[in-house]
Amino acid sequence: MKFEKIKKLKELINDSKSIVIIPHTSPDGDAIGSCLALFNMLNTINKTSQIISPNKAPDFLNWTPGFDNIIYFDSDEKKCKESLLKSDLVFTLDFNDLNRIGELNEFVEKSNSKIVMIDHHQNPKDYADLVFSEPKTGSTCELLYEIFESIGLENKLNKDISSCLYLGIMTDTGSFQFSSVTARTHEIISNLLSKKIDHNKIYNKVYNDSSESRLKVLGSALNSLTHIKELNTVFMSLKREELERFNYKKGDSEGIVNYGLSLKGVVFCAIFIEDTINDNNVKISFRSIGEFPCNLYAEKNFSGGGHINASGGRFDGNCEKAIEEFLKTIPKYKDKLI
Question: Which of 19, 62, 156, 207 is surrounded by the most beta carbons within 10 Å?
């Protein structure tokens, strides 16, 4: 990492008296893992910080060290505003566009704090005073580990911080299966394991500690699976009435899209999920194997983006209309799918 950036980051941290850490809306394992890793690291060097999330994180992440210290903008706007107003440094983690934090965006822009972006997604927006953007890195947690090492804090890594980092790396690499995983990724994982983290517990908490609603949602999604054999593609859907019937909770659909890639020969998978709160809004997740560019497909067709093998998008309408659009556009990519 560039010496000038690391020097500047050290200065910003050393000079700060009140730090705010922000993940993206509907934070996942990498967002929560990186925020709590940074929060716990700042605690070890006696720096005051507060995590402000735009909304609730899924319950299956509530074991993460420091989770109870997160405050939520959608349920405690006043406290969040107060924290931002008194802050002098803001870290934005695992996103690179302030639109990814919803209404919280307005208050970050109004704050007088210096802003540091740490992220691994493509096409960062120009809002931060200091930017660490590495799209080739598999997770924000992996990038954060490199930053800790570069600023001389590797000796401060403890079990709690290492557990948070492991969570983010594990979840954002699909349990180390994506092409973004490198020898360096495994070297970092080895270093985290040396801190006596319980990697088996972390995996089980994320993937094998399901509520009844989560299993019912999974069953419904798999029942909807449609295989487009000539395009090596599958898609699934979850409609609003189904989710309401199963008492759907945030996080219940996390990771389901990956099941589509377990079907022999499949290269590309999508899942369409109707919003349970807002009408005519469909959230879409895309996953691929190999070189098929999920991010470019999502950006061109569904106002989305992300990584080559893992991306997201959205559609104004219902599942049926979104799937119609999918079926209309996906044949144009046949040469990249077969």
Answer: 19
